Amino acid sequence: MSDSQDLHRASLASSEQSSLHVKRRLDVDGLRGIAVVAVVLYHFFPNLVPGGFVGVDIFFVISGFVITNLLIRQQPFSGRALLLFWGHRVRRLFPALFIVILFTLIAGWLVLWPAQFRELGESAAWSAAMLGNVYAFTKTGYFNVDPAWNPLLNLWSLGVEEQFYLVWPALFAALWLICRRRRVAIFWVILALLFVSWVWGLTYSVSSFELNATSATFYLPWFRAWELLAGAVVALLINKVRGRIGGGWAPSSGRVVVNRTSYIVSFAVLIAALMWPYTSERPSVYALAVVLATSLIIYLGTEIVPAQRLVGNPPLLWLGKLSYPLYLWHWPVLVIGAAAGFSVSFFHKSGLILGSFVLAWLTWRFIETPTQRRPVTWKLVAGLISLMVLVGALGWGLSKVSMTRVTVSDLAAQLDVYNGDPERNYGNPDCFIEGGDGQDPNGLEACLPENAGEPRVLLWGDSHAATMVYGLDLALTTGSVAQLTIAGCEPSLPEDAPNKGCNVQNELALEEIKSGNVKTVILAGWWRDQYDPQDLVKVVEGIQEVSSAQIVVVGPLPRWSPALPRIWSPAKIATMEYLPIYTKQGLMPEPFELDTKIKVALAGTGAMYVSALDSLCTSQGCRVSVDGNPSSLTAWDYGHLTKAGSELLGDSIVARIQP
């Protein structure tokens, strides 16, 4: 190495120590520990920590705080300083990420179905390019395989953070120069950006016709920016702004009491959020409480010493130290473990969690720690970027050639075609609005012709309801089926609709029922786990107020995890000559619990209840296929019916309404 190179390297190391050295907040490290444990437990045991997914929101606030705190200390701003900052991010994130992606590709090659492995390769390429969240968003359509079984799905949140790290330093530097270092002015600008991002995400999923509007607010960075900016606001408040904004809000004599009370309340809100079984279509409302609580905990932690000891205790600090590699490893371990044949039993899941911790510790000890001790040089940064390019190219290449070690039997090959929806069994394609392609639901009016034959049956519901049309048409001996179905739109009164498209559908349905053209109304849908049966009672009563039509409610369908075609590993399928007719393997218990609740709620309302579970399930489990062949599979994913499944259920429904 030349003398000039030595001097250059030394200057970078010196710059790093002087401009980017910030004293660690132990309580913030403890918060990281809480967040990662919440996420891991939620993914492995969702009933244990039903709100654990908000751990990601906690991570976002922490990241916004830490990064902005570093930027404030890194003065003055220059192009070289920004490059050094990005170099630190590369050194921090890329080593562990490279190892996890590489080993997940190797493990996937060993155990995954060919179609799954193709998607894993694509996901690896997008994640290596810092676009894991964008890839996850592209896979949220109704005709895609459940994205939850992508071993690298968890990298979506890292993608959001990486995109923030790319944009925010330059934007913050520009604000710093434009506002002439007036931190109060910068504070108000950031607060305005935060408000715009939050309101945009809150209203977009409600006002848009797009089915994947909710997915957009979940995965895309401009809808998540407000959470990271909340951390930035805290960093500004702590760094000499709090004395100018809201200073003296509490008398000095009572400030300690107020601060401690606020801290305790914020911590209680955070714990309650982790334990609350929340399933709103509008996550920004719920996340607001979590983000505010996390922000207050970080803000007040500088003044409350006991709080620092509470959250910064050794076990949480240890978890916080492992938080990044543990977050990276836990989801691939869970998905690959399931694909390898590990059951969903408590024992097996506990073993997979232990394996995740071991891999996280090994990664921290032998990958992260040595790398973090090295000074940031252009050679180091270029090398790490090259590794990410190589692993991304490897993933992309593998996705194209579909190389896999798995020996696929004839039976498995037939199941592998269910990588998406091969039949598109949704009745009249003009009367099922997927939503993701921007179709205007006002076009559903054409699905209600005035000259339709009598007696008319109106099927009102979501994509799960649409899969029932085929079976109903075959089973009905007289009359016709009119269908009003939009993906993601369970039947509800207009004022309770989750978005604009569902509102249009619900108004059309009630108008058609009121017109007297309908003899029988069938209400069907996914009936999500936390669905309140009293909402369904309200719909029944709303129909009864305007019509004397017969009302039939079809209960929740069997739900599989993973998707029905994937509940057995390729190795297990290789030992089978035919599929079983019934099985309990992969069945989720929530639909059975909800089936009982709906049945009880509808008693005495005058509505007829048809239990899909009674029709498709026995003591042996739920129906897998008609005759043991994959071509007669009853569902193509976690619960949408195939034509074979629709025919089975259609016979049961019509036997009740047309004896």
Number of strands: 9
Give the radius of gyration.
27 Å
The quaternary state of the protein chains shown equals single chain
> Order of strands side by side in the largest beta sheet?
1-3-2-4-5-7
Mean pLDDT: 84
> Count of helices?
25
Helix content percent band: 55-70%
Which structural category fits the helices and strands? Answer: mainly alpha
Summarize the structure in words.
It contains 25 helices and nine strands. The strands form two sheets. It has a six-stranded parallel β-sheet with strand order 1-3-2-4-5-7. The chain has 659 residues and is mainly alpha-helical. It is globular, with a radius of gyration of 27 Å. The protein folds into two domains: 28-401, no CATH class; 429-558 and 588-617 and 643-657, Rossmann fold (3-Layer(aba) Sandwich).
What is shown here, in short?
The protein has 659 residues and is mainly alpha-helical. The protein has helices spanning 3-19, 26-44, 55-73, 79-111, 114-128, 132-138, 155-178, 183-207, 213-219, 221-241, 252-275, 283-300, 305-311, 314-339, 346-372, 378-401, 410-415, 463-466, 469-475, 500-514, 533-546, 570-573, 590-602, 612-616, 643-657, and strands at residues 432-433, 456-461, 480-486, 520-524, 550-554, 582-583, 608-610, 617-618, 621-623.
List the helices and strands and how they pair.
Elements: H1 3-19, H2 26-44, H3 55-73, H4 79-111, H5 114-128, H6 132-138, H7 155-178, H8 183-207, H9 213-219, H10 221-241, H11 252-275, H12 283-300, H13 305-311, H14 314-339, H15 346-372, H16 378-401, H17 410-415, E1 432-433, E2 456-461, H18 463-466, H19 469-475, E3 480-486, H20 500-514, E4 520-524, H21 533-546, E5 550-554, H22 570-573, E6 582-583, H23 590-602, E7 608-610, H24 612-616, E8 617-618, E9 621-623, H25 643-657
Parallel strand pairs: 1-3, 2-3, 2-4, 4-5, 5-7
Antiparallel strand pairs: 6-9, 8-9
Helix pairs in contact: 2-3, 2-13, 2-14, 3-7, 3-10, 3-12, 4-5, 4-7, 4-14, 4-15, 4-16, 5-6, 5-16, 6-7, 7-10, 8-9, 8-10, 9-10, 10-12, 11-12, 14-15, 19-25, 21-23
